[in-house]
Specification:
With 248 residues, this protein is of the alpha/beta class. The protein contains nine helices and 15 strands.
């Protein structure tokens, strides 16, 4: 197993278990403790994890590489429901996020759809589909979210109009609205909403009741929320009173 494969294995294990031990990784990988420690050091320098006594855990700002494997079945259902809303010859905006990044995978068969996005993951998933017209905003690259943000990204978004904007979030509730860890990410989401006829939040049920660092939009400012069927009844009732709900 090469260096990159070891790193990917460790990140996948972190995503599944939340914490790893040096000795356990050495046994699973069939390498020395020194090799594991070297790989963990490289990943820590890249911001992927924090080393602990005898192991490692994800950073407080969990890298998007880790988040991609969280609740994958639910994210796929949510993304497909969003893709089903897209028409031929449509114009849509897709904000950065692990669930939003999956939408374009479900657009096979749609024709001449123009996608404006600040997400490098969206671009990676969409580039092989010849029926999609992709506009990737410029801007400052944020590796923890695989997104482009800042004034350049905002000027680019402001040049377009869309029928639907699809947004992600780190947490949402009636009290705090849509929240994110990055101020710049919240600004991009707000701007996409202002350029779209409809704005839909894509978020699995584990995000309900959680709050990121920045509140950037009220629940009643969005057209609706697409989430999974594990959303608890209390949240479902509160949210239905403020916006449209699509449960998948």
């Amino acid at each position: 197993m090469g260096r990159q494969e070891r790193a990917d294995f460790i990140l996948d294990r972190l995503a599944a278990e939340g914490e790893v031990s040096v000795s356990g990784l050495a046994d699973d990988l069939g390498v020395s403790l020194v090799t594991v420690r070297t790989t963990l050091k490289d990943l820590e320098e890249g911001g992927y994890l924090t080393r602990t006594h005898g192991g490692a855990r994800p950073t407080a700002f969990r890298n998007i590489h880790l988040r991609q494997n969280d609740r994958l079945d639910e994210k796929e259902r949510i993304a497909k429901a969003a893709a089903d809303m897209v028409r031929d010859d449509d114009h849509i905006m897709i904000e950065a996020g692990t669930t939003c990044a999956l939408i374009v995978k479900h657009l096979t068969g749609k024709r001449n759809v123009h996608v404006v996005t600040n997400s490098v993951l969206v671009f990676a998933n969409a580039r092989s589909n010849p029926n999609l017209i992709l506009t990737l905003t410029g801007g400052q690259f944020r590796p923890e979210s695989e997104s482009l943000v800042g004034p350049v990204a905002e000027r680019s978004i402001n040049a377009f109009n869309a029928r639907i904007a699809f947004l992600g979030t780190d947490g949402f509730s009636v009290e705090r609205g849509l929240t994110t860890q990055l101020v710049e990410g919240g600004q991009v989401g707000s701007l996409m909403r202002s350029r779209a006829e409809e704005t839909w939040l894509l978020a699995d049920s584990s995000k309900a009741g959680r709050a990121g660092f920045v509140s950037f939009m009220e629940i009643d400012q969005i057209t609706g929320i697409i989430t999974d069927d594990a959303l608890v009844a209390t949240f479902r009732e509160e949210l239905t009173a403020r916006t449209r709900m699509r449960i998948v």
